[in-house]
Amino acid sequence: MADSSDTPVTSVPSRGRLLGIDFGTKRLGFAICNPEQTIATPMENYTRQGAVQDARHLRRLIDDEKIVGLVVGLPVYMSGDEGGQAREARAFGGWIATETNLPVTYWDERYTSLQAEQLLMSAELTSKKRKARRDMLAAQILLQGFLDGDRQTTAFGSV
Q1: Left, alpha or beta for 116 (phi > 0: left; psi -120 to 50: alpha)?
Q2: Nearest-CA neighbor of 68 among 20, 116, 108, 133?
Q3: Is 4 helix (H, G, I), strand (E, B) or coil?
Q4: Which residues contact residue 156 at a Cβ distance below 8 angstroms, ignoring those fewer than 6 apart?
Q5: pTM (2 decimals)?
Q6: Could you tell me if residue 159 is inside a domain?
Q7: Contacts for 6 with CB less than 8 Å, ≥ 6 apart
Q8: Based on the structure, what is the number of domains in the chain?
Q9: What are 20-69's pLDDT values in tens digits?
Q10: Domain-embedded: residue 121
């Protein structure tokens, strides 16, 4: 199920740092893993500012952290079908692959925001503090799921 762009389908490398992205039209949550790809850590939230600024920010993150591949959360329905949000996430993945020249794969992000919210509520954080952490924690959950999962059979395609 690769993106329909002209970018060749590749997979993310099995060694090196990956950037997990919780995609949103207003905000992006970022998480990063260690070079051995065993542990994901929340990194930051980024409020989108337009294509030029977003690309500049992503390239800076990628260069600073020596990222070798990207894992974009794909919001799918319980049935596994893809809707409008999934199409937007795939379009974003195709765009970021073109902008960074890095391989992109998609990972099921069902329930990551809910899991993140539950963890933050159990920490008894204020609503404002939960909002400030939710997207990057969701990115960590989806990236850790990718690291722990069977990448060949459960990924939703690559760009």
Answers
A1: alpha
A2: 20
A3: coil
A4: 1, 74, 76, 82, 105, 106, 107, 108
A5: 0.79
A6: no
A7: none
A8: 1
A9: 999 989 999 999 999 999 999 999 999 999 999 999 999 999 999 999 99
A10: yes
